[in-house]
Amino acid sequence: MPGSVFALMDAAKGRARAAGLSVIDLSIGSSDQNPPEPALEALREATRDPQTYRYPLFSDTRPLREAAAAYLGRRFGLRLDAETELLPLIGAQEGLAHLLLAVTDPGDTLLLPDPCYPPYLGAVAVAGLSVVTLPLPPERGFLPDLSAVPKDIHPRALLLNYPNNPTSAVADAAFFREVAEWCRARGTLLIHDHPYAELTFGDYRAPSALEAGTEGVVELHSLSKTHHLGGFRVGFAAGDRHAVAALARVKGAVDFHPYLGIQRAAAVALGLPDEVSRAGARIFEARRDALVPALREIGWEVALPQASMYVWARVPGLTDSVTYAVRAAETTGVALSPGQAFGEQGEGFVRFALVQPPEVLGEAARRLATVPVSVEPTLQPVAP
Question: From which residue to which does the signal peptide run (predicted)?
């Protein structure tokens, strides 16, 4: 099981606090915004309803499934069957782990981007899969080159994530059509992790992979980022009815569905006007607009993200991002995620989570200007 970069950075933050430093924690992408008040009120009311105290069965999830179908229709123009093509999740991370167990056998091949969100590696390990990595080079906009996949590789699934964590890269609908066609020609299931669907900036709007058709495509949605319900652990899977049915069978063997009160809150959140999520996105956009120029002032190479809640920054001359990130936390109190923790292709980068106000992000950049890049490695590399 891969080690956790979050645990490593948590220890470094503890040492910084013990040394009397004020910590600016930009290492974890947990939204600091409040959930929508109507969703919270629905949850409050549910806690007073004895009908919500029992184990929730599949039939009890219909209101949330219908709300998810309506959201997908309103937002992406999709028409999904709430009975067979949608399934609530106890968070998208749980959904992915169980989906891999549902649609693969041990030893099957998974195509996995590099860099990628580290918990993907844990889900892969639990499922016993063989991984073939797909580099996401900056010169391609952090998009994979599927033509480079060896002809003798027969992947059972391909996992993608756009808007992307950690790179903040985006993909258009044409990209998903091309990828879906490539997967269908090979009998490969396309899994798209889509937690940042509404965290987009300016005129950009993220498409859904399901716009390329539901056959052979499963998309995982989460309300953690789009509606700031991270601690509530709720999301949904949508798409290919056979894959969704397989996921339901696995989940039925190991867990019940989210608490009914949380389901009610999520259904309310999904039905709110789009402006609610857009307002949250504008907060992250303002933070992006504060941090990127501040990092460029200290000589870092930073693209201006179109989406997500991260800034992916190449640090000039950096060859050991783990040691650098720990040193930065210990000496300045600024906690980042080292790029190497997301995969070999992440070396030389660090990831900022936009979870502090603009003025604090500016202060973080000023502190980082004092941290030397060339330091003697003192730590073992973190497995991605």
Answer: none
